Amino acid sequence: MKNGSMFFRSFYLKVTLTFIVSLLFVALLGNFILFRYSLKLQFNQFRDKLAIIAQTAALSVDSSALDSIPLNPQGIKTPAFESIAVQLLKIKQANPLIQYIYIMKMTDKPGIWQFVVDPDALTEKKIKRKVTSYPGDKYDASRFPGMLNALSGPTTDSELVIDEWGKALSGYAPISDRSGRPVAVLGVDIDAADVYFAEQGLFYRGIFVFLIGVIFSLGLGFIFSARMIKPIKELSEGTKHLSAGNLKYRVKVSSYDEIGQLAESFNAMAANLSETREKLHDYFYRVVQAMVRSLEAKDPYTRGHSDRVGDYAYAIAVEMGIAPEKAEELKKAAQLHDIGKLGIHEDILNKTSELSKNEWDIVRKHPEVGEEILKPVFLDEAMLSVIRSHHERYDGTGYPDGLKGEQSSIFAQIASVADAYDAMITARSYKSGMPKEEVIKKLKESSGTQFNPAVVQAFIRILERQA
User: Fold this and answer.
1) Domain carrying residue 386
2) Distance between CA 289 and CA 285 in Å, rounded?
3) Domain total for the chain?
4) Rounded to whole angstroms, what are the CA distances from 422 to 24, 249, 418?
5) Beta strands in 178-320 (DSSP E)
6) Core-most of 146, 261, 264, 291, by most CB within 10 Å?
7) What is the pLDDT of residues 28-53, one digit of tens each?
């Protein structure tokens, strides 16, 4: 009895029990933080995807055809309604997540909107729906701030919302007329069940990871409590970094026992999360890249411009001794440098005559618009600067921020030279392309004023080797 009493009072047992309790707490806390982080990340992915789908779909709608649809139930019989409805149905079929897709306009009454096109009215399918909407049917939009703000740009609901059609997550994008004025809003909905299903999968995986952690804690705590004090601290530190979004952090535990295996599992989990985030970023990058190419494809003079700028920027970066992986990131960013022009009407982009002051003001906003579009894709501030600052000048007279010299990142300065070179050497709707020798002369003349001299020198070395 005495020996048994001493065991329960021993320091070893106290340390072991304390260690087990601590490890269980850390495992639970880490799992909860990871679950909440993953849940938030996944929900935001749904929102980002909805915004992209809505924006892409809105760009394909002909505003003049939309205006010709009578706002009454007979409107569904018009060719314009049928044409737009068929187009929306194709978009819905191409995106299985979409439950509903529709177009609305504001009315004179604040907060009250009206349907213009609901393709389900054309198909006359009312399965799982409480109502079917026809042109002119009123809708109380005052309940949904995301919809009310959609005329200003693509947006989504910040949470699941409930209306006559059930519970859903919605995304919206403005449809603009030829003058760029928003005249309607395109909305896309996904069923709440799809969101809940994804959340449930995360929850079960979280429970599984937690139970595995409990088993490891109980098994290893009694055997290696003293040796595990340091590794536990390392794992705890790793959890903090991971919960803060630093998915590149790895724990360093010099051990070949179970604790070392736990550290490897932690690192594998962090690597998987990092890989998943990179895949998502790559997906969004490819979507946005496709949007840029579709924008350029409308004008034969600018077709391939962004890809060429990316190739030039990569070559300059490597010539200047920048690490290949950073040069590759720069190439991707440079390929998207003009993404903000998606917000500029084609009449301005393709205008052959001189732009007015108001039109120039619109064009000059595209770097800022592009930065806002790509913030979910590029978390690296240096790469985002390529989008925002590729029209800055070395002497500080550029836009949008008037950055001077090294105030602008070297990546933005490289993209600026690459962009200017391609603009000068290729033909546009309003000018002919310049000979290579003349372009090189222009670059030299602008060195130190418009461009960073070191970037110009590196690019000229590349061009001279190609001669």
Assistant:
1) 298-466
2) 6
3) 2
4) 59, 40, 6
5) 182-191
6) 146
7) 666 566 656 666 777 788 888 888 88
